[in-house]
Amino acid sequence: MKDLQGKVAIVTGSSSGVGAATAKLLASQGCRVVINYNSNVAGAAATLEECENLGGDGIVVQGDVSLDSDCIAMAQAAEDSWGRIDILVNNAGTTKFVDHGDLGGLNAGDFQRIYGVNVLGAFQMTRAVTESMNSQKEGGAVVNVASTAALTGIGSSIAYAASKGALVTMTLSLARVLGPGVRVNAVCPGFIEGEWLSEGLGQEKYAALMKANRDSAPLGVTATADTVAEAILYFITGPSAVTGETLIVDGGKHLTQTPLVRR
């Protein structure tokens, strides 16, 4: 396992949820962490405080990953603070909760906004850090946070599922062209316990879906922010000969799941 002491990580969308859990886990391993937020400044400040309590060093950088200038500024902030970038976790994401059968519930603007964050944002961030990663003796690691929606076509909306499918495909493309200096992998969580889904779905639907997922998953569990963060850490510190891979984190739910086909 690689020693992360003194390494520098950027975690996009790390003011809450999976991003915050990942930033804290990396800080506990001795990483210096760029904590990124778009609008939740209080959450970012809380994440930084917890990282520092764990013995890590960090800075908070506001930025919208759909804007290339903000991605470049985020990478520059890491360089200015510590002179290097070793790890990028492309976690920032967005969606619109729309039943898949409601084709009129999505418009071009919805797709463009969702793709702008979930796909273009990950591309722009990766591009912004590549030069710095390649300058490090050990290279760098990029982990994209996708979703089982990429594999099943089931998720908060068709636009979201499509964007995560694109992110998985882009992981393969980037892994090919960025080797040998940079490894690029993806994690695909299923249902993740937490505020993001409970607020988007409503508490009643959230509770019902969590129970249904747990009941049908072979391991009888759903993912949490912490278990997803553990999977991300695996790709960062794990086998150095692995790139272009995806890791499903859903308690085995995908083994029982097939896309809904309307006839």
Core attributes:
263 residues; alpha/beta; Rossmann fold
Tell the overall outline.
globular
The helix count comes to 9
Overall average pLDDT: 93
Task: Please name the CATH topology.
Answer: Rossmann fold
Radius of gyration: 18 Å
Structural class: alpha/beta
How many strands, what sense, and barrel or not for the largest sheet? 7 strands, parallel
CATH architecture: 3-Layer(aba) Sandwich
Explain how this protein is built.
The model has no long low-confidence stretch (mean pLDDT 93). The chain has a 7-stranded parallel beta sheet with strand order 3-2-1-4-5-6-7, with helices on both faces. The protein contains 9 helices and 7 strands; from the N terminus they run E-H-E-H-E-H-E-H-E-H-H-E-H-H-H-E. Helix 1 (17-28) runs parallel beside helix 2 (41-53) and helix 3 (68-82) runs parallel beside helix 4 (108-134). Helices cover 48% and strands 14% of the residues. By secondary structure, it is of the alpha/beta class. It has one domain: 3-Layer(aba) Sandwich (Rossmann fold), CATH 3.40.50. It has helices spanning 17-28, 41-53, 68-82, 108-134, 149-152, 158-178, 195-201, 203-216, 225-237; strands at 8-11, 32-37, 57-62, 87-90, 140-145, 182-189, 246-249.
